[in-house]
Amino acid sequence: MGLTKQEIHKWTDEYPLMADLLDLKPVVWLNPKRREMDQLQGLPVTIDDLEEAEQLWLRFAPYLMKVFPETIETGGIIESELRPADRMKAQLETYYGEQLPGKLFIKCDNELPVAGSVKARGGFFEVLRHAESLALKEGHITREEAYEWFATDEAKKFFGNYSVGVGSTGNLGLSIGILSAELGFKVSVYMSADAKAWKKELLRKKGVRVVEFNGDFSEAVTAGREETLHLPNGYFVDDEKSRELFLGYGVAAIRLKHQLEQRDIPVDKEHPLFVYLPCGVGGAPGGIAFGLRHMFGDHVHPVFIEPTHSPAVLLGLMTGLKSGICVQDIGIDNRTEADGLAVGRASSFASTSSEQLISAIATVEDEELFPLLAMLKDSEGVKVEPSAAAGFAGPFMLAATNYAKEHGVDPEKAAHIVWLTGGALVPEEEMAGFYARGLNKLK
Phi-psi bin for 2: left (phi > 0), alpha (psi -120 to 50), beta? Predict the structure, then answer.
């Protein structure tokens, strides 16, 4: 698209945040198009779709326990803990010099079994849905029988006739690659320049074909989509347009509801819930936000967090152009240490939903991520990659706005959940480097 300086200048008049966005300053955008539940329109999936998606997870639980023993403890379900983070809250209050009313929790998707990131939710779901569809069509299984068949040599031979492709900055590629290879698919992951070397190497060790690009996420997706769909039995997992990924992420909210109930944490008009979701293309946080709003209605307030150098969803929603504009069009470079969030253009599929569902989007500077991840390790003993630490800035940034007053919520009775999106598979040496960098910033 590419906008002229004159066009951009016009936008700075129309959108007050645009000047700071262009200057790469952290901003908070309060979404004026958030709708109440009874006013939602044209959403691409329903609560029935979410419940059906949960049933697919249950059908595959025996298979997942068989091939990934690390899931035995959770009964073959890919799920993470919800933990209180009181010590982290105290450190954050000291760091920001502000008190945060309410309670702080962390949702530990950084520790999700097998793939170690939130992308396992959507990535595994889409691959399993595709595998089930193929096996049902050819009569290898019925939905009434146990799914251990998927772990047999016969199944591997069958899926070897089919190809799966995905474009990724890293974590989605790991999820799709690991499971697709285990099932027997021929799998290719098309990775952008910002993807970490260790993620590429891990995929190759799993038997995955890795195709590298010098460009960003959108280039990897475009090339991967074209190549995969030209194959006779090719299936492309499209992070920009996928309904299945969206559903896989959305199921997380059903599980979170149970976890909150187990901890006796109410979510209602008097007890608002704020959830901070690191955001790349918008599929994972969009799917989770969809599930959250259907579980908790108007009493939950999803907040996306993006890097200042990659504010793709903020730009798309603020201007109303959604996926019709990318950050490079306004001169922002889309280069960030938060490799999982290094996306220049928002998901066309998720944007329409997120526009109605979310409360706000905040942007954070790269250098903010490292002290946050260092504080998390010191306070809670939890290790995350830089992109997963982004959410911790959210509660303090949102508190500095008039959002609570406008929406009539009492901050003192709020629960805040920071969604930790990845980190378990990061090599120790790399993690130590992140931590040291964070400690240096805290001095």
Answer: left
- Within the chain, how many helices (H) and strands (E) appear? 17, 11
Looking at residue 318, its amino acid is: M
- Is the pTM higher than 0.90? The answer reads yes
Q: How is residue 192 written in tokens?
A: 């952008």
**DSSP states along 101-164:** -SEEEEEEGGG-TTT-BTHHHHHHHHHHHHHHHHHHHTTS--TTS-GGGGGSHHHHHHHTT-EE
In tens, the pLDDT along 418-430 reads: 999 999 999 999 9
109-to-174, 177, 310, 380 alpha-carbon distances in Å: 14, 18, 22, 15
Residue 429 identity (one-letter amino acid): E
Using only the alpha carbons of the chain, give its radius of gyration: 21
Q: What's the CA gap between 346 and 218, in Å, rounded? A: 10
Q: How far apart are CA 269 and CA 288, in angstroms?
A: 20
Q: Which amino acid is at 306?
A: E
**Rounded Cα–Cα distance for residues 175 and 117 (Å):** 8
